[in-house]
Design brief:
Layout (H helix, E strand, L loop, with lengths): L1 H11 L6 H14 L8 H15 L1 H9 L7 H22 L11 H25 L1
Helix pairs in contact: 1-6, 2-3, 5-6
Length: 131
């Protein structure tokens, strides 16, 4: 997902989202009571991206690994992408860090959903490969 987003941002001249860093900043400041310096925001942004994506691995592995059905990589990848995107977007909307998805321009929504599809399909393919 990170590689797909990086390629997109380079191709379009866009900048990556700093929203994950804003979530991390709220956690660090609210829970730990520590300020996050501006020069650490990029590292926090990457850390939050990776932590969120990795945190979906355990429930995905348990659900797919314990399933008796022979779900394809595509169906399980799309399911993971949908859950990760919907949960994340719901959290960001509730935190007032993103508008509801229906208020996004279609091009922005397509990139967001598309990135999560890349993530879900890659995760499902990797899981299938090591299973």
């Amino acid at each position: 997902m990170t590689a797909a987003q990086t390629a997109y941002y380079k191709a379009t001249g866009s900048e990556s989202s700093s929203t994950p860093a804003e979530v991390g900043k709220r956690v660090v400041e609210g829970v730990l009571g520590r300020e996050v310096p501006d020069d650490r925001m990029n590292a926090l942004n990457q850390g939050m991206h990776w932590a969120y994506g990795t945190s979906w691995g355990l429930p995905f592995g348990i659900a797919v690994g314990s399933s008796r059905s022979s779900d394809s990589v595509v169906s399980s990848g799309i399911a993971l992408a949908t859950l990760a995107w919907a949960a994340g977007r719901g959290e960001l909307t509730a935190m007032k860090l993103a508008p509801p998805p229906w208020q996004d321009p279609p091009s922005s929504l397509a990139v967001d959903v598309g990135s999560h599809l890349v993530y879900g399909l890659a995760t499902a393919a990797a899981f299938r490969a090591v299973r």
